[in-house]
Design brief:
heterodimer; A: about 220 residues; 3 helical TM bundles of succinate and fumarate reductases; about 80% helix; B: about 260 residues; alpha+beta; 2 domains; five-stranded mixed β-sheet; two-stranded antiparallel ribbon; 9 helices; 7 strands; about 35% helix; about 15% strand; Succinate dehydrogenase (chain A); transmembrane (chain A)
Chain lengths: ~220, ~260
């Protein structure tokens, strides 16, 4: 069986959902504890993740490498499109264009976000227990907050619309009716996830995230 | 008499994108021709052919185009009219905004003016084996019967005239990709749904699982909007996505 663009593209599509899409949901649920339970709940959640066996291996093989492949191949896919919404201003054609646009925005955002959070832990500037104050520092700067909101909207849109596309590309939603219902479902997911992410981001601006003096560590 | 005088003055304005040879640069020329009732873009082009003068009165070469059946079943006269790819024969002047902008479907190699080479589409049909192989050295006897409901569904797909409009509308059919385009994918569905054609279904699916095959689809769904025959192209693509996915796993598992 020769390896050709069919397999590269299918792998890109699959990795976008498993594990990258699942990681986005996991990330959202972790962040959301900051809104729901405050810094104590957030720290507990972060510490639980760090207690997982082979956590670095999980990160490398289930997040970073799949994400890198999805991002780089995705940039190539976006480059090969000849967007024509000016002549064909249909809803799905706009979604096609936005999928590629938000993909590029998400790529830039994730690279920057990785640099000012996870990479800072690697450098030893912060530890996993002081991520709350780190995020507080970022979220309280209006420009950074705005960039995070843009990044989060792009990421959730790309995920939700990408799921719609995934279901078509693997032959799950075949007929027009199934595809229409799928549009409604994934647009609802987009709205819900965006609200949850922004609530989490707003939660980090709370003064209780300034330091970890009241936090109990495991 | 007064009415006739006004009617005689009525004109049709066209802006035609022209190109002298496959390699030369395209340019536009404006034309103003006398109006007649029930004109279509073809008859407007014929008028230019009869009297090849630009709107400013200066002479020019007649505009080249291709057309054949003049009833929207052959696909030869596909061109971009007011931004949308369609057949010139069914593009009625009375229903078009003026000036009518006429351009070649430049996704395909332009030969001259509005004449394009749709050869890649016929190559695609050969690639996916869009036929039913029944030739042999002996009589194979009658084929299996086809259910009427299935036949009606297949008929919808059989209306494809290889006109190229879906490829022109598709954002993923361009010089940066080798995407085969919606038409050939739908033909795989047509021939794989035929009781005799089904016997070679795997060959056609495998052709779609090669470079430039079905993976090139980015779900912009312009094709189904643009198709002059109303063929459910996106349903065909999704169904072939399902079939190729099944085929992929079956092959991996050695089933």
């Amino acid at each position: 069986m020769s390896v050709n663009s069919y397999y590269y593209r299918k792998l890109h599509s699959l990795l976008g959902v498993i594990p990258v899409g699942l990681f986005l949901i996991e990330h959202l649920l972790t962040n959301y504890t900051a809104f729901k339970e405050g810094q104590q709940g957030f720290v507990d959640q972060v510490q639980w993740i760090h207690s997982l066996p082979l956590v670095l291996g999980l990160e490398i093989f289930f997040i970073w490498l799949p994400l890198l492949y999805h991002a780089v191949y995705g940039l190539y896919v976006a480059y090969t499109a000849r967007n024509n919404t000016s002549n064909f201003g249909y809803f799905r054609n706009w979604m096609f264009r936005l999928q590629r646009f938000t993909g590029v925005i998400t790529f830039l955002f994730v690279a920057w976000h990785f640099f000012n959070t996870r990479f800072q832990v690697t450098l030893g500037h912060v530890t996993e227990t002081t991520l709350g104050p780190l995020m507080h520092g970022i979220a309280t700067q209006p420009v950074y907050f705005a960039l995070y909101v843009i990044g989060v909207i792009a990421a959730t849109f790309h995920f939700s619309n990408g799921m719609w596309s995934f279901l078509v590309s693997w032959g799950v939603t075949v007929g027009p009716r199934a595809q229409r219902v799928s549009t409604y479902v994934w647009m609802a997911v987009f709205v819900i996830m965006t609200i949850m992410f922004i609530l989490s981001l707003t939660a980090f601006t709370d003064p209780s995230f300034q330091d970890t003096s009241n936090i109990k560590f495991k | 008499m007064a009415e006739t005088a006004t009617a005689a003055k009525k004109t049709v304005k066209l802006i035609v994108t022209r190109q002298d040879s496959p390699e030369s640069k395209p340019y536009t020329e404006e034309f103003e021709i006398p109006y007649r009732p029930n004109m279509n873009v073809i008859s407007a082009l014929m008028e230019i052919q009869r009297n090849p003068k630009k709107a400013d009165g200066s002479p020019t070469t007649p505009v080249c185009w291709e057309s054949n059946c003049l009833e929207e079943v052959c696909g030869a006269c596909s061109m971009v009219i007011n931004g949308k790819p369609r057949q010139a024969c069914s593009a009625l002047i009375d229903k078009l905004e003026q000036p009518v902008r006429v351009a070649p479907m430049s996704t395909f190699p332009v030969q001259r003016d509005l004449v394009i080479d749709r050869g890649r589409m016929f190559h695609a049909l050969k690639k996916v084996k869009a036929w039913i192989p029944i030739d042999g050295t002996y009589d194979l006897g009658p084929g299996p019967r086809m259910a009427e409901a299935k036949r009606q569904e297949a008929y919808e797909l059989a209306r494809c005239m290889t006109c190229g409009v879906c490829l022109e509308a598709c954002p993923n059919v361009n010089d940066k990709t080798s995407f085969i385009g919606p038409a050939a994918i739908s033909q795989v569905r047509l021939f794989n749904s035929h009781p005799t054609g089904e016997m070679n279904a795997h060959e056609r699916l495998e052709a779609l699982m090669e470079d430039g095959g079905i993976e090139g689809c980015g779900n912009s769904q312009n094709c189904v909007r643009a198709c002059p025959k109303g063929i459910p192209l996106t349903t065909s693509i999704a169904e072939m996505n399902r079939a190729t996915t099944k085929h992929l796993f079956k092959r991996w598992l050695g089933m």
